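Q: For a teaching handout, I want to show students what a protein-ligand complex looks like in token form. Below are the inputs, and the small molecule is (Z)-L-Arabinonhydroximo-1,4-lactone. Please produce the holo structure.
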Amino acid sequence: MVKIINPIQKGFYPDPSICRVSDDYYMVHSTFAYAPGIPVFKSRDLKNWTLIGQVLERKEQLQLTGARVSQGIYAPTIRYHNGLFYVIATNVSAGGNFYVTATDPKGPWSDPVFLENAPGIDPSLYFEEDTCYYIGQRTKEHPAYYGDCEIWIQELDIKEKKLVKQPVVLFDGSMKRTIWAEGPHLYKIRGMYYLLLAEGGTEFNHSVTVARSQSLFGPYEACPNNPILTHRHLGHNYPVQCIGHGDLIETPCNEWFMVMLGTRPFNGCAELGRETFLAEVIWEDGWPVVSPGLGKVPECLEFSTLEKEQEVLPSEPDIQWTDPLDTRLIGLRDHPSRLPIKITGDGSLQLPYLPETIEDLSVPAYVGTRLLSRTFHIRVLIESEPKGAEEAGLVYFYNETHYVKVVICERDGQLEAVTTIRKGEDWEEKSRIEVTGKIHEIKLLGHDQALSVEIDNRTTGQPFHIGDLCSQKAGGFTGCTVGVYASAVHEASDRFAVFGPLHVRFFD
Ligand code: 6LW
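A: Here is the structure, written as tokens, with (Z)-L-Arabinonhydroximo-1,4-lactone included.
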């Protein structure tokens, strides 16, 4: 018996797309302006997911210069056909819709092939024999209102690497006034074509709908029970919200499941971002029924017929500085391994005081990891002797205008530990304490959206509210990350701060 607890991917892992090759499942997610882009996870049991690679690792693959944190890479789809894995996604900041291929999902993945005349976001692929079809979303040519979108299909010539023939509109949503028809995936199941899509926008009204047709190009008939999955009818206080953007998968035993995104807000704020959930699907009268008898995403699924649970090695919770970097580490707009960092023989990280700050739309010296729970302990030892504008420490980051920064810096020859929270146009210095010596321990203790900061085991002040650092308050699509940071704040510097391993503990 395999017991699967939702979410199956905690933290900022939105827009899941899944495929299966014999007994192995592969799943990818959006990464926006973080790098490396599009992590690839593998599982044998739909429960335990191991990060096996990254689709967009090389500089040439991922152009994010100037991208805001919620721009960049949107909604990838992963598919397998004839010995090759395909990932198709959108870079909303540079180039639009593109696909990459790999024989091994661990990588390396090819350079991106950008598609011309492919407007819109959320591309997907559907293979019929050896013909490949691009399925996309776009705003209608003459939209009647904001969010008036349609789903379209066009043949993609894989040899010529371009869209060919004419695009055909398949569907524009299942409700009278559909807003944001998007996230489409197309499947042929028992001779019938099914178009799965998201409607309602990725927030409270998010939902999964379906339409079917006997012919690939339509006409598509909306399921009379649409939306086949949503949580909007459960009200704002239901613990799991914003459910939508699904992808279907069949097990080797012909059972069906759907992965989809959702949030787990606390006081209306979901700082973990959009996470990935799983639900069972059965077929009745030729339509998918999600979570039969329940009609919502379950807290937990139990399956006797699923592949025996795979063995998982306990992962080392502390992030050690190694070369290559721990795969949990991400940077802003470029792979953190391409920062001018150095890992020393004793496992420390030398992080340069770059001129860029965490607010700049460039590549700051920030090496972070996703927040996986709102109760956490993050701790690091830092050795630094900042001069002038230089500062280094830890950042709890939602976006370039919403973050908490705890840094060691210098003022009039005196070293200080300064904690600042920025919420849009509102900057607040939460504490400023004098410190002595070169080596300091910075601790961030998070509990239900209150953050306590300790320096060298000294409390710096009262816990303060960090719940506003989230998409519900600040807009955007990501979740929070936390990491080490150094900056000379727009000055030149050839110096660096040294960090010990990043101690990270997330509690359920
Ligand atoms: C994604 C789209 C969406 O491409 O948010 O509102 C976008 N829905 O499906 C970013 O995740």
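A: Two things your students might notice: The first strand starts at residue 2 and ends at 5. The chain has a mean pLDDT of 96.
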